[in-house]
Amino acid sequence: MKAAAAEEFLVLPWPSNSGGGSEPGPGGEGYGAVLLKCGAAVGVTLICVVVLRKWISGGVCRCSVRLDGKTVLVTGANTGIGKETCRDLAGRGARVVMACRDLTRAERAAEEVRHSTGNGNVVIRHLDLASVYSVSQFAKDFLDSEERLDILINNAGVMMCPRWITEDGFETQLAVNHLGHFLLTNLLLPLLKSSVPSRVINVSSIAHQGGRIDFDDLFFSRRPYSALESYRQSKLANVLFTRELARRLKGSGVSAFCLHPGVIRTELSRHVEGWFPLLGALLRIPAWLLMKTPKEGSQTTVFCAVTPGLEELSGKYFCDCAEKEVAPEGRDDEAAQRLWEESARLVRLNDTN
């Protein structure tokens, strides 16, 4: 009986290990220690992702200026940073004119902006920047119907599309990204000058670096077409146009700025993804991490539009809500003047005035 009782109360030692876990894990560590290390690794990774996203998102326009009584015109406004720019400026009380090629999509975007901001003074107008006639007609109607124009935002653009030729015989990227906006801005200058202080904002790109204006073959008629080279040429044209516009408007009360919005998740890259669909699919997750949202991408545009005291920086280049050094090719005054003269000839500017 005593032996049996002793066996009933026999206490066996509890398994233990140096890691403090309940069972040995890999390398002799307890599972608890392994889980702790995994949790720490996940935590550090999440912190790094948050910090990276904050860095990628760039600058934020913190200016609270109201735009009540002001009129803003935004091209390419039905999607991407154009729509987000409209949303921000409408939220400040501005009358916002959304100039778009697709009126159906434009009306949906305008209704979304009206609903989200409570500003019913958001209207749409048809504009096809690839057509000299459309730009001229748009400008005529705008001058006839609008009393003022305080901010012109030349936002619309195409990126690395195939070699398409417009009805005027222009290569599409240079036509839409530069020539259409060049003509539009010049035709609206009388209203901009009568609304001073006013601003013209051209959305360019960091892709202007390494760009080159080939005055002997602007439309790739003789050389092999390169979608990237054409895009760079058009974005450099935005920078040079801004520089020359600021020079010509000095003392007029109209300021001009250009900017790089950042690398953004928008429809602008659809042609690139069309060429490499598998690559596009593989890059979607990294793109979420490494690219700005449209709202983040609109911040520098908004900054240039509303920040007081920028007049002395007319002609300058901005990125992440701060002035940045433009590439050397964007500081060529001779090229800027020549581009202006050639652009005016191509769009028949003197004939449309």
Write the topology of this structure.
Blueprint: H1 2-8, H2 31-57, E1 71-75, H3 80-91, E2 95-100, H4 103-117, E3 122-126, H5 132-145, E4 151-154, H6 172-194, E5 198-203, H7 227-248, E6 254-260, H8 270-275, H9 277-282, H10 284-290, H11 294-297, H12 299-306, E7 317-319, E8 322-324, H13 333-346, H14 349-352
Parallel strand pairs: 1-2, 1-4, 2-3, 4-5, 5-6, 6-7
Antiparallel strand pairs: 7-8
Helix pairs in contact: 3-4, 5-6, 6-7, 7-13
What does this structure look like?
The protein has helices at residues 2-8, 31-57, 80-91, 103-117, 132-145, 172-194, 227-248, 270-275, 277-282, 284-290, 294-297, 299-306, 333-346, 349-352, and strands spanning 71-75, 95-100, 122-126, 151-154, 198-203, 254-260, 317-319, 322-324. By secondary structure, the chain is an alpha/beta fold. It has an eight-stranded mixed beta sheet with strand order 3-2-1-4-5-6-7-8, sandwiched between helices. α6 (172-194) links the parallel β4 (151-154) and β5 (198-203). α3 (80-91) packs parallel to α4 (103-117), α5 runs parallel beside α6 (172-194) and α7 crosses α13. It is globular and about 85 Å long.
What is the overall shape? globular
- Going across the biggest sheet, name each strand in turn: 3-2-1-4-5-6-7-8
Oligomer: single chain
Biggest β-sheet, characterized?
A: 8 strands, mixed
Number of helical stretches of at least 4 residues = 14
The unreliable regions are: 1-7, 18-22
First and last CA, distance: 119 Å
List the main descriptive attributes of the protein structure presented here.
about 10% strand, about 350 residues, alpha/beta, disordered N terminus, eight-stranded mixed beta sheet, 14 helices
